[in-house]
Amino acid sequence: MSQYASVRYLVDDVPAAVEFYTRHLGFTAGGNANPAFADVIRGPLRLLLSGPASSGARATPADAKTAGANRIHLEFDDLTAEIDRLRAAGVSFTGDVVTGPGGSQILLTDPAGNLVELFQPAAR
Description:
Residues 3-121 form the VOC domain. By secondary structure, the chain is α/β, with parallel strands linked by helices. It has one domain: 2,3-Dihydroxybiphenyl 1,2-Dioxygenase, domain 1, CATH 3.10.180. It contains 3 helices and 8 strands, in the order E-H-E-E-E-H-E-H-E-E-E. Strand 2 and strand 3 (37-42) form a beta hairpin.
């Protein structure tokens, strides 16, 4: 049994996706990397990046291949600092910070259009 929880994202460019997640969001490259499939790891999350030629992408029904229906959720201690760091690196966001009773969040997209939520919990 794996020590990770795995999530699969369909991407159109596997190397670009690996670059994005490792450069900007603190993931490290996993043990698999080729033009069809790669994995990246951050804490207990193993993100499976499946390109069009991968078996994972081919097994997905055509009407379910739209990016953005789900999102991974990454937690940070200082959301403002993280946003500033990413903007300085050229990463754009899909909107502004939204704050609610549980904390603050902002969304960005990876190169394939998959959503990533950056979150800072409310002070307790």
